[in-house]
Design goal:
Oligomer: heterodimer
Helix content of chain A: 55-70%
Mean pLDDT of chain B: 75
Largest sheet of chain B: 9 strands, mixed
Number of domains of chain B: 2
Largest sheet of chain A: 2 strands, antiparallel
Number of strands of chain B: 9
Helix content of chain B: 10-25%
Order of helices and strands of chain B: HHHEEEHHHHEEEEEE
Shape of chain B: globular
Radius of gyration of chain B: 21 Å
Radius of gyration of chain A: 18 Å
Mean pLDDT of chain A: 77
Largest interface: A-B, 73 and 62 residues
Low-confidence stretches of chain A: 1-29, 122-132
Distance between the termini of chain B: 27 Å
Structural class of chain B: alpha+beta
Shape of chain A: globular
């Protein structure tokens, strides 16, 4: 559950319920119904934007988040609620769009590997906590850059989107076994690069 | 520990969505013609404010065309009605109290193939210069809209209508606009517009002003003077129309600022007598039936105590 985060300047709150099974059922019908598509946008825009924004610079991410929903709307007839659900579907579209900006994503990791997180990131404490485990943004960015595109997609869908393996498979249109083997390879590479289990 | 939690924790986060960007993105969603880029007629994030206003009379006599020899007009010019309502709102006292409270109902109507369900969620926002923001949200009901809908629903085996489901709401703050307290925003339309445009990040300022206005009315403790000025800013925008006798989802009639065309028309409905906002709603159906609305029940400064922390039920 997430409340208001108010520091006097920002006031942002997403209300829980998006992953409520009830809510998901409610939204499944929204996909096919143009009149209700805006409900789907409201429920998922922020998380899709955040997912893309963690892989690409924010100006690109904002555009791609909007693009994700436009594509979803155009392709709504292809949506099959039985295959992974709405979140997997939206994350899949977003991941495809990110794939078109692979060089930008790699540039971003290299920049983070060089100079660490931006000063205004506001996550100093978290980073410091993790420094004890010797995992810094710099090291982790370099390690993520060392993954193949397919490996990175599955890892970040799990890490940022909290998708299940089934959902990742549906999102990327690959077999469950492919997801599992990519994750396994990625885990080995990350462990070798970071010196800790991830 | 969830899988790859370390990546989630260590990698940089993403700042909150900017209202204007969000509004512009949402504006590109269906309902209007698909557009590759910026829309000319966007559909915005719904935002609504109304006040516990008792409708007095329902029609406000407005002097029209004074000095032109025309004494009366059977149908007052909607813009004159709006200006009169804005004048009255601007003349209202600022109000006192430790907290500013906005209580509203978020309404959505969802059509299944055989019946229509109406869902309502109560949403109360508390704002205080000292304590920041708190919110209370919880479902009110989800039920078939009409007796005919109820019959169709029962015939379908009375499936779960999802009582207790939450509609998501995100509060947005264009950061640049909050560098000063909301109560200090200009009360002069030109100055207010300039202040808002200073924060504009969109290449369609008209869409941005429309979207940001709803946020200023709904989620910020703006003064009556600022709110009145906002009506005038919107009324002067080329894409905005002023229409009289527009009814909100709860049957209250007022003067409305409207934006966009059917089937994605948005309406800010204002009480003619007091100038207070009654509702912001969005018509998405070609049958003219409101699809979604924010209907505000109370708005203003209060001595009532705010909850100790935000609550969701």
């Amino acid at each position: 559950m997430e409340g208001l985060v108010g520091n006097g300047q920002s006031l942002v709150s997403t209300v829980p319920g998006e992953r409520d099974p009830c809510m998901t059922t409610f939204l499944d019908g929204a996909v096919a119904d143009p009149e209700r598509f805006s409900v789907l946008f409201d429920a998922h825009y922020e998380e899709i934007r955040r997912y893309i924004g963690r892989r690409l610079d924010l100006d690109i991410a904002e555009d791609l988040a909007a693009e994700t929903f436009l594509i979803a709307f155009r392709q709504r007839d292809n949506f099959d609620a039985a295959k992974g659900g709405i979140r997997a579907w939206l994350y899949g579209i977003a991941t495809n769009l990110i794939g078109r900006h692979r060089r930008a994503e790699m540039r971003r990791y290299r920049a983070l590997a060089r100079s660490g997180p931006p000063a205004d990131d506001g996550h100093d404490q978290r980073v410091v906590d993790r420094v004890a485990a010797r995992v810094t943004v710099q090291k982790l960015s370099a390690a993520l850059a060392g993954l193949s595109r397919g490996e990175r997609d599955v890892v970040l869908l799990v890490a940022y989107g909290e998708l299940t393996y089934d959902e990742v498979a549906a999102a990327l249109g690959v077999a469950y076994g492919t997801v599992a083997s990519r994750l396994s390879r990625a885990r080995t590479k990350l462990r070798d690069a970071l010196g800790v289990e991830v | 520990m969830k899988e790859f939690q370390l990546i989630d924790e260590v990698m940089p986060g993403v700042p909150p969505a900017d209202h204007a960007r969000m509004a512009a993105a949402r504006a590109r969603m269906p309902g209007g013609a698909p557009r590759p880029r910026r829309p000319a007629w966007p559909k915005m994030v719904l935002a609504a404010v109304a006040v516990s206003v008792v409708m007095v009379g329902g029609f406000v006599a407005v002097p029209l065309l004074r000095g032109t020899g025309v004494e009366t007009a059977a149908m007052p010019d909607p813009r004159a009605v709006l200006d009169a309502a804005a004048d009255r709102l601007a003349a209202r006292p600022l109000g006192t109290g430790a907290w500013w409270r906005r209580e509203m109902e978020q309404v959505s109507r969802v059509k299944t193939p055989v019946y229509t369900v109406e869902k309502r969620v109560k949403d109360v926002l508390w704002a205080s210069p000292e304590h920041g923001y708190r919110t209370q949200r919880g479902p009110i009901f989800a039920k078939p809209l009409t007796p005919a809908d109820e019959q169709a629903w029962k015939k379908a085996g009375s499936p779960d209508l999802c009582d207790g489901c939450q509609m998501g709401k995100t509060y947005f703050t264009p950061l640049k606009l909050t560098h000063k307290p909301a109560t200090e925003l200009p009360t002069d339309p030109e100055a207010l517009k300039a202040e808002m445009l200073r924060a504009n990040t969109d290449d369609n300022p008209e869409a941005w002003l429309w979207g940001a206005s709803q946020w200023l009315l709904l989620d910020l403790e703006t003064t009556p003077g600022t709110r009145a000025a906002l009506y005038r800013v919107l009324a002067d925008l080329p894409g905005v129309r002023v229409e009289d006798n527009v009814t909100d989802i709860d049957g209250r009639t007022g003067i409305a600022l409207t934006y966009g065309n059917a089937p994605t028309r948005q309406e800010i409905i204002i009480d003619r007598a007091s100038g207070e906002l009654l509702a912001v709603q969005e018509e998405l159906s070609d049958k003219g039936k409101a699809f979604a609305a924010y209907v505000v029940k109370r708005l203003g400064w209060t001595d009532d105590p705010a909850p100790k922390e935000s609550r969701f039920s």
